[in-house]
Amino acid sequence: MLEEIGEPYDIELLSLAAGDQFKPAYLAINPMAKVPALMHDGAIITEAAAICTYLADAFPQAGLSVPIGDPRRGAYLKWLFFAPGCIEPAMIDRAAPRAEPARRGMLGYGDFDTVVNVVANGVAKGPYLMGEQFTAADVVLGSTLRWGLMFKLLPERPEFLAYVGRLGERPALQRAVALDQELAAA
Ligand SMILES: N[C@@H](CCC(=O)N[C@@H](CS)C(=O)NCC(=O)O)C(=O)O
User: Fold this and answer.
1) Is the CB of residue 18 less than 8 Å from the CB of residue 74?
2) pTM of the entire structure?
3) What is the pLDDT of residues 56-91, one digit of tens each?
4) Which of 16, 20, 23, 35 has the most ligand 1 atoms within 8 A of CB, as the residue to mutate?
5) Helix, strand, coil share (%) of the chain residues, nearest 5
């Protein structure tokens, strides 16, 4: 998301393996002991989807938001919430099933197959969730799909593969992946 915004930023790395996320200095930033966290203009924002929504609104010149008043805003917000609210819990429940399965009505995401079908329909037409406009919703949902496919938590639906293929052509994502690899190797 930061590479898509194109403004300068600093990264502060934590070692999750060493438990940096549980140290008081970081718990003061995010009491959930989870990364990522963003600091901007003195404000701290946590939760990846909230961070991306915030950045898209804070830097409108990047064109990654669908602004208030635009009739497409509702669909944009739906996709931003859909990844952490439906896709991620559906994948995790599939990977680590409950001893006693929950009724469909108890699960906010309903059921895995419906989630997969709805997302596949959402990305099928493309090139992006909102059509020609690439938005923060693609950063959030696209990251979730890339992660789910990488760990084989999602089926390799042709719609998913085509969509993440399009995302992979974006120079910002290529820069971010290269930076991740550089940081991981350091
Ligand atoms: N709800 C959080 C979840 C973030 C998350 O799962 N972060 C993982 C790394 S990808 C983490 O911090 N794991 C460290 C731990 O749980 O100790 C978000 O969407 O930002």
Assistant:
1) no
2) 0.97
3) 999 999 999 999 999 999 999 999 999 999 999 999
4) 35
5) 55, 5, 35
